[in-house]
Amino acid sequence: MGKSSKDKRDLYYRKAKEEGYRARSAFKLLQLDEQFHFLDNVTRVVDLCAAPGSWSQVLSRRLFEDNVDNKASKRIVAVDLQPMFPIDNVTTIQADITHPKTLNKIMDLFEGEKADFVCSDGAPDVTGLHDLDEYVQQQLILSALQLTTCLLRKGGVFVAKIFRGRDIDMLYSQLSFLFERVVCAKPRSSRGTSLESFIVCLGYRPPSNWKPRLDVNMSVEDFFQGCDIGRLTLNDELPSYCEEPRSIAEFISCGGLDSFDSDATYHDVPANSTALDPVQPPTNPPYKRALELKRQGKLTRAV
Ligand code: SAM
């Protein structure tokens, strides 16, 4: 599929380029914020899994252009495994969010202050093995959540991408233990055909005995130890086991019905419109090597 047909097929793809965003995902955060207004009065924010940086661009515009008060105390930190081209007012860190050193780096940048808002649009490279992909995605959300519990101020907001799989109600229960309100939101710019949604966790309220921890080897059960949330384990006696009532999160579609449908093909793009170049080409994408080999004719199999 050529660039111009993609411009017509997916208007968010084109609109992102028109408005100077590095990726169409920018509209997901914008539509979530339109619904929940979580960026109205924030000073310190963390964007986890941020490359190529369209969410950080939204954060930068919202914090530094839409509201010019207290610019000196505002801080945006963006973290990704991939290098990111600089963005105005954003400090970028190339690091793994599951590594404890990353937490220390962010905390140093905040000079002991807590964050008002943490978001994570993290997605691992998919293998196509569905169970493995779902497991790795869940581990990424858990790492983002662990990091968030160490960084977020009371009352703060956490937003993360999820894929609504089998055990998602368990995640809702766990999050409800830490936040006043947990909503599963689907922006119009997120394809309806995808299981992708976003958990919007409002009002961080950890219990008084809660000890925030970041340990990639810790299981979900251990992380939520003491909250009586979890699966049956080998040590549980069956007769005494009683499954917890699982939570059902509110589900909200956001972005308004007047916004573009990301699954539709729009034919009212002017015929003479030209395909726009990407705002920021990828820095070091995982497929770079494959493209180089293809260009050299080395990717074809010998007959
Ligand atoms: N929100 C971004 C934007 O608007 O431009 C798009 C994020 S992209 C969908 C997912 C990102 O997650 C990738 O850039 C990937 O490198 C990052 N990622 C995956 N695992 C990570 C990890 N363990 N630590 C840091 N970043 C990670």
TrEMBL record:
EC number: 2.1.1.205
Binding positions (S-adenosyl-L-methionine): G53, W55, D80, D96, D121
Residue ranges of every copy of the Ribosomal RNA methyltransferase FtsJ domain listed in the record: 21-204
A Gene Ontology BP annotation from the UniProt entry: cytoplasmic translation
GO cellular component, one term: cytoplasm
InterPro entries (UniProt xref): RNA_methyltr_E_TRM7, RNA_methyltr_RlmE, RNA_MeTrfase_FtsJ_dom, rRNA-MeTfrase_E, SAM-dependent_MTases_sf
Gene3D superfamilies xrefs: Vaccinia Virus protein VP39 (3.40.50.150)
An example molecular function term from Gene Ontology annotations: tRNA (guanosine(34)-2'-O)-methyltransferase activity
Active-site residues per Swiss-Prot or TrEMBL entry: K161
Reaction catalysis annotation: cytidine(32)/guanosine(34) in tRNA + 2 S-adenosyl-L-methionine = 2'-O-methylcytidine(32)/2'-O-methylguanosine(34) in tRNA + 2 S-adenosyl-L-homocysteine + 2 H(+)
The keyword DNA-binding is assigned to this record: no
Swiss-Prot/TrEMBL keywords: Cytoplasm, Methyltransferase, S-adenosyl-L-methionine, Transferase, tRNA processing
Subcellular location: Cytoplasm
Matches recorded under HAMAP family: RNA_methyltr_E, RNA_methyltr_E_TRM7
Similarity comment: Belongs to the class I-like SAM-binding methyltransferase superfamily. RNA methyltransferase RlmE family. TRM7 subfamily.
The protein's name in its UniProt record: Putative tRNA (cytidine(32)/guanosine(34)-2'-O)-methyltransferase
